[in-house]
Specification:
CATH topology of the largest domain: Aspartate Aminotransferase, domain 2
Order of helices and strands: HHEHEHEHEHEEEEEHHHEEEHEHEH
CATH superfamily of the largest domain: Type I PLP-dependent aspartate aminotransferase-like (Major domain)
Structural class: alpha/beta
Shape: globular
Keywords: Aminotransferase, Pyridoxal phosphate, Transferase
Helix content: 25-40%
GO molecular function, one term: transaminase activity
Strand content: 5-15%
Largest sheet: 7 strands, mixed
Strand order of the largest sheet: 1-9-8-5-4-2-3
Cofactor: pyridoxal 5'-phosphate
Number of helices: 12
CATH architecture of the largest domain: 3-Layer(aba) Sandwich
Pfam families: DegT_DnrJ_EryC1
CATH class of the largest domain: Alpha Beta
Oligomer: single chain
Number of domains: 2
Number of strands: 14
Distance between the termini: 29 Å
InterPro entries: DegT/StrS_aminotransferase, PyrdxlP-dep_Trfase, PyrdxlP-dep_Trfase_major, PyrdxlP-dep_Trfase_small
Length: 369
C-alpha cells in the first residue's frame, strides 16, 4: 500500500504548524465531525490509533476481567490485544471462507454465558454482514464492536459500513486508504458514550485542554477517573481532512484496478480472488487471492514474485498461531488456518499501472502450470 499524499496535505499540515496549535484542537474537532458524517455516525472521537480506539470502545462498554469477548483470530493482532487490555478473555471464532469475516454461525459456535461482546472485523475492507450480526448481537444481549480499521469507503446494504453501528473503531495508518500517518477514531451513536470517550482519551479531564486554553477565564480542571493519553494532533487531523475529500475517488480507482485484476486472473485454476459479498461493496483496502489448490505453494509464489520485482505479501495473519497467544487453546479454526496459510496480498495502490498488473498476473499464470 502506497498512501496517496500530495501538496494539499503538506500545506494543511504546514498551516496547522503555523497556527501555533499543533496538539488536539479545532482541526481534530472538525475532522471528527466530518468523518462521522461521512460514515453515517452521530459522533466521532479521534484517537492516536485504531488499537487505542478499540481499547476505549471496550472500556466505555464496561468490558472487564472475567468477561469473554468473541473475536476473529483472522485479523491483525491488535483486535485480540485490545480485549486483553481490559483484562477480558478473547475467544477466537472462525471466519467465512469467501469474505474472511466472522458470521452469526461462527460467533454462535463459541459464544458462552460469559460472552459480553463481539468484535467483528471488516477484514481487508470486505464488509461483514452488518444486518445479520447486529440483529444477532441484540438477540444475544451482547455488545457488537465493529472493527472498521480497513473499512473507510466500504458499504453494506447500500450504506457506509459505520452507518447504524453502535460503536465502530477506525484506523488511519498509512496502509489504509485514508491516512493521517498514525491515528484512529471511535464512532458512536450514543452521546453519553461520546462524552466519556473524549474524557478517557485525555487523562480523564472534565474539560479538554483546547477548551481550557480557549477560555477567557481561569479553568480549574478535574480528573474524574483513571484514563489515558490517546489524543490525535491537529497536524494529523489537518491531513485527515484533506484525505477525507479524496476518499470517494480513491475507492473508485481501487475498484477499477480490482476489476482489472479479476479480468486478468479469470481462468487461473486453483486461484480465487477476493470479491464483493452479495450485501455490500469492498473498498479493496487489500486484494488477496486464495491459492487453495494451486500447484505452487504460497511461500514459493511470494518468492518468485519477489524475484520478479513484485512486492506481494502473505495473507492476513492468524493471531492464535502467534507466540503471544500460545497460552490460548482455541476451538478448531479450519477456515482461518486455511486462509492464513494459502493466501497472499497482491499490490494494489494508486500508482499501479495496467502494465504492472499484467506483469504480476503473468507470473501467477506461469506458476499455475
Amino acid at each position: 500500500m502506497i498512501p496517496l499524499l500530495g501538496e494539499e496535505e503538506a500545506q494543511a499540515a504546514a498551516e496547522a504548524v503555523r497556527s501555533g496549535w499543533v496538539a488536539q484542537g479545532p482541526r481534530v474537532k472538525s475532522f471528527e465531525h466530518e468523518f462521522a458524517a461521512a460514515v453515517g455516525a452521530a459522533h466521532g472521537v479521534a484517537t492516536s490509533s485504531c488499537t487505542t480506539a478499540l481499547h476505549l470502545a471496550l472500556v466505555v462498554l464496561g468490558i472487564k476481567p472475567g468477561d469473554e469477548v468473541v473475536v476473529p483470530s483472522f485479523s491483525f493482532i491488535a483486535t485480540a490485544n485490545a480485549v486483553r487490555y481490559v483484562g477480558a478473555t478473547p475467544v477466537f471464532a472462525d471466519v467465512d471462507l469467501a469474505t474472511g469475516n466472522v458470521t452469526v454461525e461462527t460467533v454462535d459456535a463459541v459464544r458462552t454465558a460469559k460472552t459480553r461482546a463481539v468484535v467483528a472485523v471488516h477484514q481487508g475492507g470486505v464488509p461483514f454482514d452488518t444486518a445479520a450480526l447486529r440483529k444477532a448481537a441484540d438477540g444475544w444481549g451482547v455488545h457488537l464492536v465493529e472493527d472498521a480499521a480497513c473499512g473507510a469507503g466500504s458499504t453494506a446494504y447500500g450504506q457506509p459500513v459505520g452507518a447504524g453501528a453502535a460503536v465502530a473503531a477506525w484506523s488511519f495508518h498509512p496502509r489504509k486508504l485514508l491516512t493521517t500517518g498514525e491515528g484512529g477514531m471511535v464512532t458512536v451513536d450514543d452521546a453519553g458514550h461520546a462524552t466519556r470517550l473524549r474524557r478517557l482519551r485525555e487523562h480523564g479531564m472534565n474539560v479538554s485542554a483546547a477548551d481550557r486554553h480557549a477560555s477567557s477565564q481561569p479553568v480549574l480542571e478535574a480528573y474524574l477517573e483513571t484514563a489515558y493519553n490517546y489524543r490525535m494532533t491537529d497536524i494529523q487531523a489537518a491531513i485527515g481532512l484533506v484525505q477525507l475529500g479524496r476518499l470517494a475517488g480513491l475507492v473508485a480507482q481501487r475498484r477499477q484496478l480490482a476489476a482489472r485484476y479479476h479480468e486478468l486472473l479469470d481462468g487461473i485454476e486453483g486461484l480465487t480472488p477476493i470479491k464483493d459479498p452479495a450485501y455490500g461493496q469492498t473498498n479493496y483496502q487489500s486484494f488477496w487471492v486464495l491459492l487453495d489448490s494451486f500447484p505452487t505453494s504460497r511461500d514459493d509464489v511470494l518468492a518468485e514474485l519477489a524475484a520478479q520485482g513484485v512486492s506481494a505479501r502473505r495473507g492476513i495473519m492468524a493471531a492464535h498461531l502467534e507466540p503471544a497467544y500460545a497460552d490460548v487453546a482455541p476451538p478448531p479454526l479450519p477456515v482461518t488456518e486455511r486462509l492464513t496459510r494459502n493466501s497472499l496480498i497482491l499490490p494494489l495502490h494508486h500508482k499501479l499501472t495496467a502494465d504492472d498488473q499484467e506483469r504480476i498476473v503473468s507470473v501467477l499464470r506461469g506458476l499455475s502450470r
